[in-house]
Amino acid sequence: MYKHYKDNDVAPKAQHAIPNTTVRWVADHFRDANVRDQTTAALIVVAYFFLLRVGEYTPTRNKKRKKRTIALRKCDITLLRNGRPLDKEAPLSVLLTATGCTICLENQKNGVKNLTLYHDASGDNSFCPARSMAYLMHQLRGRPADTPLGTCYDEAGQEHRTLSSQVLAMIRLAAAQDNLHSAGYDLSRIGTHSLRSGGAVRLKHAGEDDGIIKKLGRWSGETYAKYIQPHIGPLTGGCAARMAEPLRFYNVHVR
Q1: What number of CA atoms fall less than 13 Å from residue 144's CA on the CB side?
Q2: How many structural domains comprise the chain?
Q3: Which of 53, 102, 109, 111 is 20 to 30 Å apart from 221, CA to CA?
Q4: What is the pTM of this model?
Q5: ∠54-57-58 over CA atoms, to 5°?
Q6: How far apart are CA 83 and CA 81, in angstroms?
Q7: 173, 169, 167: which is closest to 44 by C-alpha?
Q8: 35, part of any domain
Q9: Distance (Å, whole) CA 92 – CA 94
Q10: CB-CB neighbours of 84 under 10 Å
Q11: Chain centre to alpha carbon of residue 113
């Protein structure tokens, strides 16, 4: 009976993995925007590079429902220059000299606690996890250690916290502006998880070892494979040509 129910269930549709050109559009377009949009854009860049789940950097939507994941806070971030931690209260000009950054996930969906991840600076001033993190930390100067990442303050000193709905709206705007529809995307299937999936696909296409992808995405088993979406063209580019190359082999029988 259960098998019958399962067979008749509607197949779930995964969110599309987005290319890094879409994330770069966010970084470039909102570089000189208001402080709230700049903060959201910087958070999106960080989420893409660290393959973050949306609940790891935005508040839960249901205040009454307790969740295991603890979203990133000021105390969970370290900016480094040549391996040495930078003062979190330093001016932005100093924070932007960071050559790398770490995040510490105190608790996650899978129950793993106090996991630290590191990224070097990308070397690209407009598309870099360390520089985006520097901006986010600059917004938290003088604030308590447990202030959530993605918090910012406008000119009137009013506090704003980036919500998952704002992240989603900005990603979908970027997808439209990047003309992903012409690349075969269904824009309604682009969501916050598209950043996590898109980052994993880009790492795979770059030839990164599966172990590195799993470590960065905090996948303990083979679940990560579903994020490497097989319909992404470049992943299988050239496979047909290689499969068509003549190769004769023997069938060896072992008795």
Answers
A1: 3
A2: 1
A3: 102
A4: 0.84
A5: 75
A6: 5
A7: 167
A8: yes
A9: 5
A10: 7
A11: 19
